[in-house]
Amino acid sequence: MKVPTHEELAVPALRALREAGGEASIEEHADTVAAVMRLSEEVLAVPHGGQGARGAEGHVRDSKFNYHLTWVRTYLRKMGAIENKGRGVWSLTDYGWSVDDETALHKFREVFRGRKR
User: Fold this and answer.
1) pTM of the full predicted structure?
2) What residues have CB less than 8 Å from 35, skipping those under 6 apart?
3) pLDDT of residue 52
């Protein structure tokens, strides 16, 4: 199984915050997204950036999943669905609570695809 793309993570990222009551730390959010998507430990352990992403003892510094999810939160913020309430804490906005999955994915794609412009 491959690591989900940014677009594949967008709606589950919103659902995870809803399941968490609207607010979660980065770690809590990542754990909930992984559970919502039923991702295997193997997928969650794929390192970002190949061997350069490993520390001296071979531990994964950051996974590709976490890297993608970090950017997903950035784009969800840009579309007005979530906000950063403090260091490492993300919460849903009113829009994030109310937007349906189809509309959220459409808006996410607009923001994500416009990132290089």
Assistant:
1) 0.85
2) 16
3) 47
